Amino acid sequence: MPALFERQKNELYQAIYNSLTPVRSSRVDLLKWLVNRRIEYHAKNNSYRIGNEHGDSVVTILAEMYGNRIYSHPKKDEYRANLLIDLDSLTATDDVKIVDNNYVATGRAVVTIAEYEVENRHHLDNKKHNNRIFWLTIVLVLVGILQVPYVQEYLGIRAQ
Description:
Blueprint: H1 2-19, H2 27-45, H3 58-66, H4 76-92, E1 96-99, E2 102-105, H5 107-155
Antiparallel strand pairs: 1-2
């Protein structure tokens, strides 16, 4: 009886997981994850020598990013294809290299992440600046509307 209950519970959890669409991660999130995995591996094994590469397979990356339930998700092949495209693009830009069918972040990945963060900071600054200009314009329009009666009086224009 407990095995039947456990199976039904797992089926319920899988149905809930399937009804929720996992959020597709961006290339930069994937790159950050790969860099962190490499740092964790080297720190754990105290191995900072060049040539001592440890990477993760597509299966491992998919499970770590979306959870093990992704393999029972109806769109698992779509998520795997998206991950492969992202990994291929990162490989093409030399941010990631393939070692023994595993993906390893390179030193270039750190530069790419830093460039992304600077660009993102500039974007946020521009949004704040544009927001301030918008509200300043609204305030100036309101001030202009409030001054209309005084300007009419000064110019001798009568409101009809």
